[in-house]
């Protein structure tokens, strides 16, 4: 791995560690019945910390068909994106029990999206594009569930405006991932592995640390 690819990965583990420490401090100020929001935010960044550290150490990628595939990104995403969705659901509804079917559907579509994305990254053209499409369909299902039933639930809850901010933030950021994937080394190869590494860093930090800050601040303000 070149140092140009490695540098953003080093920044990545430092940023996730810093986010984890910040969330731990913020969580201490939360009332007991709101601590689960802090636990979710911390789990997300500490999982990302481990994956960024592994990638920075050269333990999170493999050369497949002559291409460097960062499989650790998918291990990170397959764990953290379901937790991000659960975080959003916990803002939409005070308790998850009444919406468990919806949460299960969200997680199922999301895991399917990440796993098929990994298969695509391990595939040669044109099959990589086919897997991108399959993954995109499940991504659209995730978005449809958020903007349909989950939004309806949030409309009856206490955190309506916070839910709007977070769901918009999630949608805009998450939409960037398939674009980077399609244009980067896993697809058309329009930019280098180093540029791709920077793009994913900016997205991962905003989607995890940024999202966590907004979510925890919203919960703190209301409690
Ligand atoms: C892939 C493969 C191509 C098609 C699609 C994808 C979507 C990925 C997403 C990832 C989100 C990651 C987050 C991580 C950090 O917090 C897998 C790139 C649709 C939406 C939010």
TrEMBL record:
PROSITE patterns: BACTERIAL_OPSIN_1. Its main location: membrane. It is a multi-pass membrane protein. The chain crosses the membrane at residues 6-26, 38-58, 70-91, 103-123, 129-147, 168-191, 197-219. Pfam families: Bac_rhodopsin. InterPro entries: Arc/bac/fun_rhodopsins (IPR001425), Rhodopsin_retinal_BS (IPR018229). Keywords: Chromophore, Membrane, Photoreceptor protein, Receptor, Retinal protein, Sensory transduction, Transmembrane, Transmembrane helix. SUPFAM superfamilies: Family A G protein-coupled receptor-like (SSF81321). It is found in: Membrane. Belongs to the archaeal/bacterial/fungal opsin family. This is Bacteriorhodopsin. The lineage of its organism: Bacteria, Pseudomonadati, Pseudomonadota, Gammaproteobacteria, Oceanospirillales.
């Amino acid at each position: 791995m070149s140092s140009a690819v490695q540098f953003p990965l080093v920044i990545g583990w430092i940023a996730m560690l810093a986010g984890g420490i910040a969330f731990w401090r913020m969580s201490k100020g939360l009332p007991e019945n709101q601590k689960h929001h802090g636990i979710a935010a911390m789990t997300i960044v500490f999982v990302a910390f481990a994956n960024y550290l592994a990638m920075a150490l050269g333990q999170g990628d493999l050369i497949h068909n002559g291409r460097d595939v960062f499989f650790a990104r998918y291990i990170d995403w397959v764990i953290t994106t379901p937790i991000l969705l659960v975080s959003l659901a916990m803002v939409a509804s005070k308790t998850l029990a009444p919406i468990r079917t919806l949460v299960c559907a969200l997680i199922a579509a999301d895991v399917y999206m990440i796993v098929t994305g990994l298969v695509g990254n391990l595939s040669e053209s044109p099959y990589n594009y086919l897997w991108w499409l399959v993954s995109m369909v499940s991504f659209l299902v995730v978005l449809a569930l958020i903007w349909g039933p989950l939004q309806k639930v949030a409309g009856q809850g206490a955190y309506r405006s916070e839910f709007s901010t977070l769901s918009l933030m999630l949608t805009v950021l998450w939409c960037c991932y398939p674009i980077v994937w399609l244009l980067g080394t896993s697809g058309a190869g329009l930019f280098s592995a180093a540029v791709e590494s920077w793009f994913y860093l900016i997205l991962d930090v905003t989607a995890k640390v940024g999202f966590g800050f907004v979510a925890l601040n919203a919960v703190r303000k209301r409690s």
